[in-house]
Amino acid sequence: GCSPGFNRMLALLKRVTSSDSTVLLLGESGTGKELAAQALHEMSRRAKGAFVAVDCVSMTETLFGSELFGHEKGSFTGAIERKIGLVEAAEGGTLFLDEIGDMPLCLQVKLLRLIESGVYRRVGGVEPLHADFRLVLATHRDVKAMVDSGAFRSDLYYRISTFPIAIPPLRERREDIPLLTESLLTRLGK
Predict the structure, then answer these.
(1) Are the beta carbons of 79 and 73 closer than 8 angstroms?
(2) In the predicted model, what is the mean pLDDT of residues 139-150?
(3) Among residues 138, 136, 134, 130, which one has the least CA distance to residue 103?
């Protein structure tokens, strides 16, 4: 892109690459929030680590702990072996939580605890594990309005909104359409 909105967003991404600050990407569905998160990861000192994307919409309360934190063998029916979670998989890299605005309140508490302490336990485990990842989150929702209505925890909101970056929709950066068209045609080999 070459539009002012795209360049502002890119400048903010570049500005935050040298730190491990939590970044909240805000924008409509389809604006490229995950691409922005990947770009942030690739420009950061954590680029050699994994980029682990988690879709919060598909995360149920029952699966959340096991998927995010892993589980120990025998901790529940079907847990036939130890499984590392996505937090551990992101060790040294970036954990990207997409559509954080769709996360139920009961799961927000678990995420807040992880952010505040940097410590977690596998489901069924007793050993505290220390997390080492950069947290990037994204949402298409107005999280501040959700806080005001009680649908999103205010303490979590203030933890994750330390560095918000708005991703502009394409209708606000029409001058980027020719560049995007050219890029897509090149990928298609036309």
Answers:
(1) yes
(2) 96
(3) 138
What is the C-alpha to C-alpha distance for residues 170 and 63, in angstroms, rounded to an integer? Answer: 35
Q: Tokens 């929702």 appear where?
A: 141
- State phi, psi for 23 to the nearest 5 degrees: -120, 135
Distance CA 90, CA 77 (A): 26
Task: Give the span between the Cα atoms of 177 and 154, in whole angstroms.
Answer: 38
Where do runs of H (alpha helix) occur along the chain? 4-16, 33-43, 61-69, 86-89, 105-117, 143-149, 154-160, 177-188
Give the confidence band of 143 by pLDDT, cuts at 50, 70, 90: very high
Neighbours of 103 (CB within 10 A): 23
Looking at residue 189, what is its pLDDT? 83
Token digits of residue 41 = 């990861």
The answer to whether 162 touches 20, Cβ cutoff 8 Å, is no
Total residues belonging to the chain: 190
pLDDT digits (tens, 9 = 90+) for 42-92: 999 999 999 999 999 888 877 888 899 988 888 888 888 989 999 999 999
Using CA atoms, how far apart are residues 47 and 61, in angstroms rounded to an integer?
30
Q: Please tell me the predicted confidence (pLDDT) of residue 74.
A: 84
For range 126-137, the mean pLDDT: 95
Distance CA 160, CA 109 (A): 13
Q: Report d(CA 176, CA 136) in Å as an integer.
A: 25
